Amino acid sequence: MIVSWLVLLFILPFIGIRFHFNDMDGFMDVDQTTSIKGFFAALIFLSHVHAYLTIAPDSVDSVFSVIIGGIGQLMVTMYFFYSGYGVFESFKTKPGYDRSFFRNRFLKTLLHFDMAVALYAVLDLILGTGYPGVNYILCWVGWESLGNSNWFIFVILVLYFISFLSFRFTSGMEGKRRRLVVVLINVGLSLVVFFLLRLSEKQDFWYNTLLCYPFGIIFSCFKDNICRILKKGQVFYPLFAVVLAVFVLLHRSEGVVLYNICSCCFCLLIVMVTMKVKISNRLLIWLGKYSFSIYVLQRIPMMILDKAGVSDNMLFILISLTMTVCLSAGFERIVRAVDRRLFRRNVAL
């Protein structure tokens, strides 16, 4: 049963879990956030592979489809949130981070993505897929695709560029005033991007979760105040209940504005849970560290297997997963070698 893959995935976060109800320290530790990213990386893989499977609507495995469909775009929300949070945390704590941001965050992400897109271009030649001519031009920035996952990269690149603009615009400011203006610029321009994408012909999933990025920035800016309030048990649990209720009410909303609010609520729920539990699973950490490569490369084995006519669901998942892991590990080694030659500073993506 392919639904067993989901069962296994949802068990993983509980392996090695530790509870700390009276101590919030470390809820944003690298191991914890990487574990969570690893969990959602695996969930995104299962979501993408689901499109290639044949599942009878009245079978036990139909539960797989129901769960994947129910989670939907929430799979990517923590990536947006952690990206915004990480950018602002680095801005607050790392001298010179704002000056090297364009090179070490924006250009590095774009380069890594284009290296992956080049593989899809080669695969397209081999398989003879054939895409419209405009795809071969705009695929390099993620606006179009050669069969690869692209929308998230395009959106995150735009959001990174907004952060770059906020740093440049406020370069003459200092202290809390600068931080506040940086937050306002990120929030304001993210809303502009949201409405522009809404006016475009792109599907809703291009923009119905992107506001989680500025939400992460806001959380980082006011983290000390937020934590001070949430350390009070009489506030934490009622607030958690309220956020959960809002999330449940908005989850099935068809409006993209409401869904963005729902997505931000989901991020806050995950963060509040991690304030009470410590998730640090070695397998999830590994998946989290390789999540970028897994995301951009996972469709290669799926496309090959689909072209080869592999129809057995379990076999399709097993081979796709094995090939994706191997491709990601090799790709990461190449990427790091390229980074060492082209970038002087190593800024984590």
Structural class: mainly alpha
Number of domains: 1
Q: Got a strand count?
A: 2
| Overall 3D form | globular
Largest sheet: 2 strands, antiparallel
Describe this structure in words.
- The structure is a single chain.
- The protein has 349 residues and is mostly helical.
- The chain contains 16 helices and two strands.
- It has one domain.
- The chain has helices at residues 3-11, 30-50, 62-71, 77-93, 97-127, 133-138, 151-169, 175-199, 212-221, 223-230, 233-250, 256-274, 282-289, 291-297, 299-308, 313-342, and strands at 18-19, 277-278.
- The chain is globular, with a radius of gyration of 20 Å.
- The two termini are 36 Å apart.
Key attributes of the depicted protein:
349 residues, mainly alpha, two-stranded antiparallel sheet, 71% helix, 1% strand, globular
Describe the structure concisely.
The protein has 349 residues and is mainly alpha-helical. Helices cover 71% and strands 1% of the residues. Helix 5 runs antiparallel to helix 7, helix 7 packs antiparallel against helix 8 (175-199) and helix 8 runs antiparallel to helix 9 (212-221).
Q: What topology does this entry show?
A:
Layout: H1 3-11, E1 18-19, H2 30-50, H3 62-71, H4 77-93, H5 97-127, H6 133-138, H7 151-169, H8 175-199, H9 212-221, H10 223-230, H11 233-250, H12 256-274, E2 277-278, H13 282-289, H14 291-297, H15 299-308, H16 313-342
Antiparallel strand pairs: 1-2
Helix pairs in contact: 1-2, 2-3, 2-13, 2-14, 4-9, 5-7, 7-8, 8-9, 11-12, 15-16
